[in-house]
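dumping this here so i dont lose it again. seq + smiles for zinc ion
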Amino acid sequence: MDCMEWIMGYGNAVRQSLPGTQLRNFAVVLLGSVLAIPALAQISDNQIWNELASGNRRFMNGKPERRDLVARRKELEKTQSPRVAVLSCADSRVPPEVVFDESLGDLFVVRSAGESADPLAVGSLEYAVEHLGTVVIVVMGHQSCGAVKAACSGEKPASQNLDAVVTPIAASCTKVDKSKPDTFDLAGRDHVHSVALELLAKSVILKKAADEGMLTIVEAYYSLDTGEVTKLR
Ligand SMILES: [Zn+2]
């Protein structure tokens, strides 16, 4: 018996035992309960983002949480269950655990220059969602990204490996006005959006989890100037 069948069956039982006004009141409460189910899932995702944003504010204010890392390491000896995965650039100025003021076991982090959705990144995120219970993936780009600048420069990369870094970003460079001073950041933001869409397009596992309401993908951008991570979508 699925949820709706249970509700319909329960409704029939109540209809036989309640007079008119009480029945209407019951119907309002029941409808409210049904409509609240997706709303609650949304709140949960929002709560997770709010916690990340709070950590980011602590980082910006120079007031990181005091932590007993030795105790936390021991707690995590045999297990991990990070609710959040972050796909971000390898840039040394943008470590997710630091900018979100999170600890051991909190974030499942996948990093490469330009945070592209290549098979290793997608497979790593599938592992987190499938086996570790991750429910939010943050795709995080950042201001003045060297990989984005290289991709938008049009110059030929010095190796096949470097080509693999810039090629996935090149499409975003063609979408922005190159005469604007913030060209690279516009391209970087577009690339974050493309990567978020690619994760779902390239992965049956991630798409299924998202469709079932078990996974939310958040697009975010880190400012080197302020240290703030802004939620784009
Ligand atoms: Zn970068």
